[in-house]
Amino acid sequence: MKSISRLMTCFVLVACAAASFAGCGLLSPARGVPVHQPGAGASVPRVGTAVHQNEQQGHASVLGSGDIVEIRVFEEDSLSGVFRVGSDGYIDYLLCGRVRVAGLDASGAGGSIAECLRDGFLRNPQVSVFVREQHSRQVFVFGEVNKPGTLEYRDGMTVVEAITRAEGFSKHGAKNSVIITRVVDGREQRLRIPVEDIGLGRAPNFVLKPGDIVFIPESFF
């Protein structure tokens, strides 16, 4: 009987010990018990946000006429400097002569210059291009409007929108004789736009391009 009693006592002690260990959370994760991780409860960056920011950075503006860029060549101070993009889309760059950068972003312009320098000048040029001033993404409105000035260009901007953002025609504005000046392949073109007819539905709206100049002459009638 004493042997049976001792066996029962040992069994109870072992069962209590097992229950005690279970209360401490020392169970196998395979049974579905959550495992504590360091830093749990802290805020976690949302992947979607990071991706969105990267996408925004990826949409780099392209260079155009009038933009001012700084070119740096690693360990080659004599090849570094500040340049303005000409009306034809080229810069005059030291060893390379005329280099077309219009239509390229800063990275693409740097690649074009590096390719030139690699062709007989430097073995492995490291070129960086920084946009200092970007005038090609602007539209200029002046003449007989209430608030002449420079407007930031937005994709799809029309002549009606530009004049509206300039707070409309002045009382002397020639509404059907608006002149748009635009550079095409290095040459200036002038177009007469009947803005009043556009407002009345008699003519289609006119879509502007970056760098366009919108001039509203004075009406004499």
Low-pLDDT windows of residues: 1-59
CATH topology group of the domain at 138-216:
Outer membrane lipoprotein wza fold like
CATH level-four homologous superfamily name of the domain at 138-216: Outer membrane lipoprotein wza domain like
Alpha-beta classification: alpha+beta
The SSE order reads HHEEEEHEEEHEEHE
The biggest beta sheet reads: 5 strands, mixed
| Binned strand content | 15-25%
- Spatial order of the strands forming the largest sheet: 7-6-10-8-9
Measure the end-to-end span.
128 Å
Helix content: 25-40%
Specify the CATH architecture of the domain at 138-216.
Roll
Shape: elongated
Top-tier CATH class of the domain at 138-216: Alpha Beta
Count of individual helical segments: 5
Please give the radius of gyration in angstroms. 35 Å
Average per-residue pLDDT, rounded, comes to 77
The count of β-strands is 10
